[in-house]
């Protein structure tokens, strides 16, 4: 099979060729591996090649909806027995998983040919994929820009044509942000819809969930049928649709009432391109017959961000402590931003953590009240086009001060420092729209409908009420049909 034939099909289409006997899984893996070898030096998307695993799987026998399709795992929370899940950090690269995670086992059972793991920032803690251990992962649409994070490696690999779909996860926007940066489709499922086991019941009090990134909506819909199967050992009974999610792409949605806003909930600036992205999406929705009007939930965005960050930093502190205990690593073996964030997390009392998490209910109720009137909320996915590589790196003077405070074990001083709050605000300002869906456990999608004046993707986000995954997939498929995006290829397509 030629690369152009491979790139022209989604994962469902490739699986159909395998099922008919028109192509062997080995051929698909050869094309995917050759493409990886052509582009990897440019994008740095693969943290762990697993060629021997891929070759063994491709030899068969294979069964399932995606039998024979090449696939990449995200190197965070997606354990493959006998291989490390490094989570973007050096100390974990030598720690091998003793079993497959529930999610990975479902992918294996679906017949996917896993042949590597993709890069992620350390512990998935930031919205760019840049680490001391692995370096910077780059956006195929512009190699000077980020593919986003934390599923940035997966997004870059898909956009570059290595695979049509790859593993991802989302604790504060980590599926939707890379989708928006790389011109892909991303569904963040609602709380409890995708299993996190078997080693954990849920991550970040259920705010984080796993899934995939894909070029087209159909792959994500078919995959969601697989991932949303109930887990008998999990903490929730999955609220699955009575219909197959695959049917969503064949069934146009009813006329929807959609409220939209492009104002940052943090009160920070929103780039003109992000505003144009929302306005263009709203206009397209109206042409499709939906009712669209300006509206936003009544939520104090800064308060919600503070309560999100309290839980987030405490969670990161626990992860860092666990990793140090497991590996014996010194603090200095971790990225500075990880150490500073974890130090801030350690300053929160148990009461502060419980109070912040308790207030998540306030934001959830407010969003539910918004959905009493509007079927969906439309916002930018990003407040600005994909950031330049290195743009989030702090000035040397700031890093020096933070290093000094860390060496003095002055975590409380870090948290009280205006520098710390400036860093937090600076990190959230480019992505102020995505955390609400994680806090509230609501499903959300990013659709790649907009391109900036210089050709960069810039997605728009829809947030739905509980159980609206089917509706979101319906709408995404309708938008994709009206304004197709899957055939668009970045300049990197000419590489090799």
Question: How is the topology of this model organized?
Answer:
Elements: H1 3-7, H2 11-20, H3 25-43, E1 46-49, H4 51-58, E2 70-74, H5 102-109, E3 113-118, E4 130-131, E5 135-136, H6 152-159, E6 165-170, H7 176-182, E7 185-188, E8 209-214, H8 217-227, E9 257-260, H9 272-287, E10 291-294, H10 301-327, H11 336-346, H12 350-373, E11 376-380, H13 396-407, H14 411-416, H15 418-428, H16 435-440, E12 444-451, E13 457-463, H17 469-482
Parallel strand pairs: 2-3, 9-10, 9-11
Antiparallel strand pairs: 1-3, 4-5, 6-8, 7-8, 7-12, 11-13, 12-13
GO molecular function, one term: amidase activity
Pfam family, one: Amidase
Domain Amidase: 27-473
Largest sheet report: 8 strands, mixed
Tell me the overall shape. globular
**Helix segment tally:** 17
Indicate the CATH class of the domain at 3-257 and 467-482.
Alpha Beta
Strand content: 5-15%
Give the termini distance in whole angstroms. 17 Å
3D architecture notes:
This protein is an alpha+beta fold and 496 residues long. It has a domain at 3-257 and 467-482: Amidase signature (AS) enzymes. The protein has helices at residues 3-7, 11-20, 25-43, 51-58, 102-109, 152-159, 176-182, 217-227, 272-287, 301-327, 336-346, 350-373, 396-407, 411-416, 418-428, 435-440, 469-482; strands at residues 46-49, 70-74, 113-118, 130-131, 135-136, 165-170, 185-188, 209-214, 257-260, 291-294, 376-380, 444-451, 457-463. Strands 6-8-7-12-13-11-9-10 form an 8-stranded mixed beta sheet, with helices on both faces. Helix 6 (152-159) packs parallel to helix 7. It starts with a helix and ends in a 14-residue tail after the last helix. The model has no long low-confidence stretch (mean pLDDT 95). This is amidase. One of its GO terms (molecular function) is amidase activity. Its EC number is 3.5.1.4. It comes from Nocardia pseudobrasiliensis.
């Amino acid at each position: 099979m030629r690369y152009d034939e491979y790139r022209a099909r989604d994962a469902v289409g490739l699986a159909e060729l395998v099922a008919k006997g028109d192509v062997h899984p080995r051929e698909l893996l050869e094309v995917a591996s050759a493409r990886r070898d052509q582009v990897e030096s440019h994008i740095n998307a693969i943290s762990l090649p697993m060629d021997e695993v891929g070759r063994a799987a491709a030899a068969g026998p294979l069964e399932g909806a995606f039998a024979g399709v090449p696939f990449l795992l995200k190197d965070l929370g997606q354990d493959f027995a006998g291989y490390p899940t490094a989570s973007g950090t050096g100390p974990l690269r030598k720690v091998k998983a003793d079993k497959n995670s529930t999610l990975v086992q479902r992918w294996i059972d679906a017949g996917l040919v896993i042949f590597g793991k993709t890069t992620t920032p350390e512990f998935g803690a930031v919205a760019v994929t840049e680490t001391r251990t692995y370096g910077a992962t780059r956006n195929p649409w512009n190699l000077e820009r980020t593919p986003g994070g934390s599923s940035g490696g997966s997004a870059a690999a898909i956009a570059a044509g290595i695979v049509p779909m790859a593993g991802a996860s989302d604790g504060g926007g980590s599926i939707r942000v890379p989708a928006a940066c790389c011109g892909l489709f991303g569904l963040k499922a609602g709380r409890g819809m995708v299993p996190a086991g078997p080693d954990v019941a849920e991550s970040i009090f259920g705010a984080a969930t796993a899934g995939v990134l894909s070029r087209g909506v159909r792959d994500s819909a078919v995959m969601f049928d697989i991932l949303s199967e109930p887990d008998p050992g999990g903490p929730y009974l999955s609220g699955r649709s009575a219909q197959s999610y695959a049917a969503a792409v064949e069934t146009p949605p009813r006329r929807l009432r959609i409220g939209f806003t492009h104002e940052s909930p943090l009160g920070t600036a929103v780039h003109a391109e992000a505003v144009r992205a929302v306005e263009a999406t709203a206009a397209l929705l109206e042409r499709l017959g939906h009712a669209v009007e300006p509206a936003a939930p009544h939520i104090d965005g800064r308060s919600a961000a503070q309560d999100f960050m309290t839980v987030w930093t405490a969670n990161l502190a626990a992860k860092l402590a666990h990793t140090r205990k497991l590996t014996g690593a010194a603090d200095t073996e971790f990225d500075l931003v990880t150490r500073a964030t974890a130090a801030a997390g350690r300053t929160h009392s148990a009461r502060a953590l419980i109070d912040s998490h308790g207030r998540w209910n306030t934001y959830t109720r407010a969003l539910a009240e918004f959905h009493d009137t509007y079927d969906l909320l439309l916002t930018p996915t990003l407040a600005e086009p994909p950031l330049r590589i290195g743009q989030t790196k702090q000035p040397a003077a700031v890093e020096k001060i933070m290093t000094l405070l860390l060496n003095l074990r002055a975590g409380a001083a870090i948290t009280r420092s205006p520098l710390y709050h400036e860093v937090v605000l600076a990190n959230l300002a480019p992505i102020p729209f995505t955390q609400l869906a994680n806090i509230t456990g609501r499903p959300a999608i990013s659709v790649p409908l907009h391109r900036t004046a210089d050709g960069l993707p810039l997605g728009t986000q829809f947030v739905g009420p509980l159980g609206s995954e089917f509706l979101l997939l319906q709408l995404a498929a309708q938008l994709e049909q009206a304004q197709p995006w899957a055939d668009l290829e970045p300049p990197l397509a000419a590489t090799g």
